[in-house]
Amino acid sequence: MIEIVIDQRRRDLGGFEVGRVLPFAKRRMVGPFVFFDHMGPVELAGPAPRSMDVRPHPHIGLSTVTYLFAGEIRHQDSLGYDQAIRPGEVNWMTAGRGISHSERFDGPLREHGGALHGIQAWVALPQALEETDPAFAHHGPEDLPTYQGDGLWARLIAGKAFGAEARVKTSSPMFYVHWELEAGAKAGLQPEYPERAAYVAKGQVEVDGHAYGVGQMLVFAPGETVVLTALEPSSVMLLGGEPLGERFLFWNFVSSSKERLEQAKADWKAGRWALPPNDQDDIIPLPEG
């Protein structure tokens, strides 16, 4: 039933920690999901330091998906979009042939501090769309179907699952779901897609007689319904979809072509990328390697 369990690897980003889950050496992707970071949870003392901000940096070949349980983040990009994201909303940025953006804490966290907790995922683009035009979309709760019953509250963040479809434009068959489970509640993940996983963001769940806790991603074998039982109040993220084939990663770049990665690296190093119009200072330099 469970093919592999991936434990998050914690790292400090200058004021708060994230748990890197994907990519993992023994499991690079789940469906189109090629990157999965768990931000926090952390309670920040105000004012939030500038060292927490993620300065302007580039992407190609993917869509970034930001979803928060608590806090607020300000997105700015080279297309001119300037959009705060709050809990229950989705920022979906398609990099395509290239986009740069920053993520800053210019809202209440900057002034007063407070809780920060969320997930940032990257969804690889199909090879035919890797060089598509960059785009950005923001979606509120009205675009994201919800369900409640038998101790389960669920929100469909993107894609199709459980007979529902979110109003978020995706590029390949996939699903991304947020579950809130009361203690003792049971919920089933059906075999709609060949690649599926569940990530425990809060609490503890039981699958097939074994307990799993915060920071663990369970990657499931295809072909059968998986039942999760909450051993305590729990937040679980479900993700997966159709596989896209091998992808190469370097820093913030994803591509089916190593040559394309080299071109993107050279362009950023040479300063040939457009930057967010109101956020052009102090960019993140290209890492060595």
TrEMBL record:
Coiled coil: none annotated. Residues 176-273 form the Pirin C-terminal domain. Residues 16-123 form the Pirin N-terminal domain. GO terms for molecular function: metal ion binding. It holds the Pfam family Pirin_C. Fe cation binds at residues 57, 59, 101, 103. Binds 1 Fe cation per subunit. Keywords: Iron, Metal-binding. Its cofactor is Fe cation. Belongs to the pirin family. This is Pirin family protein. It comes from Phenylobacterium montanum.
